[in-house]
Amino acid sequence: MKLASISRYPVKSTSGHEVTEAEVQPWGLAGDRRHVITDESGAVLTARQEPRLLACVPVLNSGVLDGGVLDGGVLDGGVLTLTGPHAEPLTVAPTGPRSVVHLPRTSVEVTDCGDAAAAWLSGLAGRPVRLGWLDDPARRPVDPAYGRPEDRVSLADAFPLLLTTTASLARLNDWIAGTALELGEEPRPIPMRRFRPNVVIDGVTEPFAEDEWKRLRIGEVEFRVSKGCDRCVLTTVDTTTYRKGKEPLRTLARHRRRNGKVWFGVNLIPDLIPGTYGRLAQGDPVLVL
Fold first, then answer.
1. Residue ranges per domain, the chain?
2. In angstroms, rounded to a whole number, what is the distance separating the alpha carbons of residues 251 and 110?
3. Is 129 helix (H, G, I), strand (E, B) or coil?
4. What sequence ranges are listed for the domain MOSC (predicted)?
5. Which residue of 105, 131, 242, 258 is surrounded by the most CB atoms within 10 Å?
6. Torsion angle of alpha carbons 10, 13, 18, 20, nearest 10°?
7. Distance separating alpha carbons of residues 177 and 282, to the nearest angstrom
8. What is the block-wise mean pLDDT of the chain (289 residues), using blocks of 10 residues?
């Protein structure tokens, strides 16, 4: 088995992009889901409510902005360039006041990224929004039912990384084709990006073998599998048209339904020596421990 692809999502619930290598930090990939969009009330706004947020493609920059260096050095993923179909690209950085945002199980303090970022994203979302940055991801614990007291996560829904496999997607798309045939519909295979994984594994011999994994090593980094990933309506949003459909939830409900939820992929927690980071690269070997 090998690591087929690595993806990072700098702003929660916007588009991600593939990278050939990435640093692994205790709370996830470096720069992954460190920014969050909030509405006028301060509540987190996601593509579940505003699918057009997926048209935003954020790319991490260094700490240099407009010829100056922020905070005397490089901000850890704090500087972004936002691109989208509605406006010219915009480079933004956290420079404003702090505010509290409410996430599943926890509330965390984030730093505002300024009026220009707010206006740019508001134009895309079609309503007033703000952009915030989590300067210290070490302040947010994972769900204690599935992790250790010291485990941390950035602004992802639940856990530091999400893993999927190409074998499982191939089986799911076979099922989707069968469902379409039964209903007289045109088969439309689901691309992996609908599931928003951080790491995709190739060479797995059995679809959904990852359901049984407890620990694995990717390259030189070891991970614990905390739990399977239950899937939400965001997977039904077409990343090209931003319209919601029935798949893959319709077919997952037929074949992968447990405890009132549907499942695809597994969540990972890095097992790192305290104070150290790891590194992943495309093509790294994968070993189930």
1. 2-139, 161-288
2. 38
3. coil
4. 136-289
5. 131
6. 40
7. 30
8. 97 94 94 94 92 94 46 58 96 90 86 96 97 92 93 94 98 97 95 98 98 98 98 95 95 97 98 91 98
